[in-house]
């Protein structure tokens, strides 16, 4: 004979294991869908509602705790981290190991804070890589745009698509990953990079359509900062220009909203880094030093498209693989 209490218990625990979405969850989900222009088939609606509800629970739980950063809903809130990783991060480790870099830092003294966005017209608007693992091209253009603007006084958005389509000979792999240092090498040997306007971004890999007569930015030398020399990065950002870096994105970062990001989920080694971005400055917030970093997930993500990440601890391997060009 079946014990009804036991049956009830089994049903309830099954429900809680699957976190059956409530009316409130559906309400949140529908307003999120409207905000992000999402339309689903009936079947997909329930799958996405489930994932969204899990993500929202994680956000609420995190935000109740004592952390230096908050999580929030964003355009990725209906995705699992493994789906997210497939669309936006490198699928395999890149050759990112400047065991001995060629950048020698001056050892300071350095200012307590610096923000290249405020020093002049040196940083272009936040861009959006779409569903293509091309972060490395945005880190590259972002850095070269700034270095060129600091040198010439003219800030011009440059072409990611040229790097996606044309930089394969330097161990870059279009939508499947690449490295800013290798992209700078490509630009140096190719003798130029076109503008965003003349070679616009599509988020798909296509045949190289580079036109040398339209080259708009150039690289004379590639500076690699020795792996794990985070002081070298501080020196470069303080005394020269924004710096391209790579780090490991884990599931907690997908839901970042604001504040100084720190993680115990990520690693610190070159073989784990899976996303390239651009450090445009640094500072500190009630004793916690941080980097100011430009991302390429649109201006709706994070703090207007930027994030802060703890500085001085090689957080998530951010000092493993940094570089910048000399123009
Ligand atoms: C929150 O964390 C900070 C930094 O770790 C600590 O100084 C503070 O005491 C914590 N506050 C609470 C309420 O736990
Ligand atoms: C790493 O470098 C080796 C040797 O140059 C190359 O064969 C390999 O494809 C590179 N790996 C990646 C992910 O670019
Ligand atoms: C900098 O890094 C790139 C790519 O990782 C490499 O090809 C290049 O040789 C390095 N440059 C120096 C001067 O070590």
TrEMBL record:
Compartments reported by the entry: Lysosome
Chain ranges of the Peptidase C1A papain C-terminal domain: 110-326
Catalyzed reactions: Hydrolysis of proteins, acting as an aminopeptidase (notably, cleaving Arg-|-Xaa bonds) as well as an endopeptidase
SUPFAM superfamilies: Cysteine proteinases (SSF54001)
Keyword Ligase appears in the UniProt entry: no
Pfam family for this entry, one: Peptidase_C1
UniProt cross-references to InterPro entries, sorted A to Z: Papain-like_cys_pep_sf, Pept_asp_AS, Pept_cys_AS, Pept_his_AS, Peptidase_C1A, Peptidase_C1A_C, Peptidase_C1A_papain-like, Prot_inhib_I29
A single BP term in Gene Ontology: proteolysis
SMART domains: Inhibitor_I29, Pept_C1
Function: Important for the overall degradation of proteins in lysosomes.
Protein's recorded name: Pro-cathepsin H
Organism taxonomic ancestry: Eukaryota, Metazoa, Chordata, Craniata, Vertebrata
């Amino acid at each position: 004979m079946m014990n009804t209490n036991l049956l009830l218990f089994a049903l309830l625990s099954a429900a809680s294991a699957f976190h059956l979405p409530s009316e409130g969850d559906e309400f949140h989900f529908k307003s999120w869908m409207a905000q992000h222009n999402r339309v689903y088939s009936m079947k997909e609606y329930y799958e996405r509602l489930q994932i969204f509800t899990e993500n929202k629970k994680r956000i609420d739980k995190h935000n109740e705790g004592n952390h230096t950063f908050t999580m929030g809903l964003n355009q990725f809130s209906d995705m699992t981290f493994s789906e997210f990783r497939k669309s936006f991060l490198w699928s395999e480790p890149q050759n990112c190991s400047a065991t001995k870099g060629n950048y020698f830092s001056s050892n300071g003294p350095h200012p307590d804070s610096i923000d290249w966005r405020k020093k002049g017209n040196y940083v272009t608007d936040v861009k959006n890589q779409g569903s293509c693992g091309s972060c490395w091209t945005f880190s590259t253009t972002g850095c070269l745009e700034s270095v060129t603007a600091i040198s010439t006084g003219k800030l011009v958005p440059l072409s990611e698509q040229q790097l996606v389509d044309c930089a394969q000979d330097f161990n870059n792999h279009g939508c499947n990953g690449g490295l800013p240092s290798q992209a700078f090498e490509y630009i140096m040997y190719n003798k130029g990079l076109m503008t965003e306007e003349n070679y616009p971004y599509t988020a798909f890999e296509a045949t190289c359509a580079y036109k040398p007569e339209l080259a708009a930015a150039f690289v004379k030398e590639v500076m690699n900062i020795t792996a794990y020399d985070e002081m070298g990065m501080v020196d470069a950002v303080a005394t020269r220009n924004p710096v391209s870096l790579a780090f490991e994105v884990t599931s907690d970062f997908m839901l970042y909203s604001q504040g100084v990001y720190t993680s115990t989920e990520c690693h610190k080694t070159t073989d784990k880094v899976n996303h390239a971005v651009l450090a445009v400055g640094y500072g500190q917030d009630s004793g916690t030093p941080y980097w100011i970093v430009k991302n390429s997930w649109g201006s709706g993500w994070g703090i207007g498209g930027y994030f802060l990440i703890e500085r001085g601890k090689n957080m998530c391997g951010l000092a493993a693989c940094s570089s910048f060009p000399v123009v």
